[in-house]
From TrEMBL:
Highest taxon listed in the record's lineage: Eukaryota
InterPro entries assigned to the protein according to its UniProt record, in alphabetical order: CHK_kinase-like, EcKL, Kinase-like_dom_sf
Organism: Danaus chrysippus
Record protein name field: (African queen) hypothetical protein
Annotated ranges, domain CHK kinase-like: 119-306
Amino acid sequence: MAEDILRDFLTVVLDKRGYSPRKVEIKNITSGGANYTSALFLINLQTSDKTLKLFAKVATMGKEMRIVANAEKLFRTEEFVYNKLIPLYNNLQKDLDEEHKFIFPEFYGFNNVYGKETVILENLVESGYKPYSRFKSMDWDHGRVCVEAIARFHALSFALRKSDPEGFQKIAEDMKYTFDEDALNQRVTDKFKEMVETSLSVLEEEQYHDKIREFLFDPNLMDKYNKPLSTPVLVHGDYRLSNMLFKEKGHDLSAVIIDYQTLHTGCPVADLFYIIFLGSDEDFRRLYYDKLINHYYTSLEESLKRLDVDPVEVYPRENFESDMKELLPYVLLTAVSSLPMVVVETESAPKWDSDEADFSSLILEPGSLYKQRFTGIINDLVRWEVI
């Protein structure tokens, strides 16, 4: 079914680009538990004078999971990013050296038909980019390029606001984070509490359970979460290692961010915390947490100056520090709701492609890696006197 949808849309895209006559080969691939919303495909296109290596995602979520995941918004957001935002951002950085640009994958087409949502992009793996194992804690080099990449991405928001204040304000309003309160029925609330208790069950010491519950069971939690604080930018929203590809260049490393379904108006620190706490373990953070935080802000300053934006005017260090202090407790929510799916074993990964899948599929049995990572996050938050 998904391959048929892709073939039909691919015909439209390739005809529009004049790639005819042609030979097309399509191969279904798996993400190994890193993707839940789509079927993934590699495309090999051969014409008389060129070869193209492409990548495609086709929506496969069942009815209930489309509601739970707010799928319509996810796909609308992705379409906006590839069709509207990327051209704006590329125009802002057109005069930068290639080594200083934020890299977007080349975009070929988006199908926005309900239930057939499809995006076709260049296959970056064919250009030498590789994923990083979601089961491994990041090392310094991968952490370094991750924060450099997201700093460049955030800098483009500031640059857009400077060059077109009204245009940025409209985008920021359109992309404002919203939470469907109607979806927050008693059943969903009960399942979220079950998710919290499942996470707490891995902690050997119970002395912090009540504090964690008190924070996570706050009825206003979701209203506060993912909102901009001192300075709004367009954030990625799901900035984890599984949404990154890396390429070695001699003795250096470069990174490309992928999957923009969760982009929204938020706080830069939210992306920074997301990649750090979902992509590293306690040992890494003891060695490199402060260094990574400083490297992000230094990279942001450098990126802003290249785009002719004054860092002190748009996001001074004191605002950055204030945002970190305010957002740090929300790492608890990330550790409970997102971390289980990031480190789930491949064979235990939830299936969202059937109508039987529902909110309960988000509640996963904690494995040994989750126990280690979750305990490490709690240890950090205790050490920093957050809980």
